[in-house]
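To close the section, here is one more complete example, presented without commentary so you can practise reading it yourself. The ligand is heme C.
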Amino acid sequence: MNPKFSIAFATALVALTAAGSVQAYDPDWKRGRVYYRMVCTECHEAKAGGAINPATKTKAEWAAYIQADKHAKGKESLKRYVSKQYRDSIKATNKAAAKFADVPEQELLEDLKAFLNKGAKDGDAPAKCS
Ligand code: HEC
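Output:
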């Protein structure tokens, strides 16, 4: 193999491996459910006038909502609420935030997506908040 080609080949291999490892995360919808109920719902009950039922949106609507990353009528980022920083800020009084304090943000987001996908109006198990 000539050197130029082998560098290109090695780069492609690294890129493929990296993509593979991202894909390899197998979302834990149960962890997503715990987080949704104990973090998202807890605040909705206190500040959004009541719980927001996962079955109020379809799978496609949840996917678009998460993708848009606009929360509370677009005032802020949704991802902020799965961030380590946010979990840190509430972990003294929130058991789920404390328990999942060290989970990578991307994994927790995937878990949440998996739960919302399952609990959506057209999901496998349309979910209430509790
Ligand atoms: C610290 C409080 C708080 C947390 C935590 C929180 N929310 Fe909210 N959320 C709100 C409030 C307040 C509203 C209502 C905003 C309004 O109607 O003006 C809202 C509204 C929503 C809505 C309705 C659409 C919208 O954006 O206005 C959805 C869906 C939602 N939240 C999803 C989530 C999810 C998923 C999480 C957890 C990852 C989460 N929220 C965490 C306070 C929170």
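Once you have examined the tokens, check your reading against these statements. The pocket of heme C is lined by residues 39-40, 43-44, 47-48, 52, 65, 71-73, 78, 81-82, 112 (CB under 6 Å). The chain has a mean pLDDT of 89.
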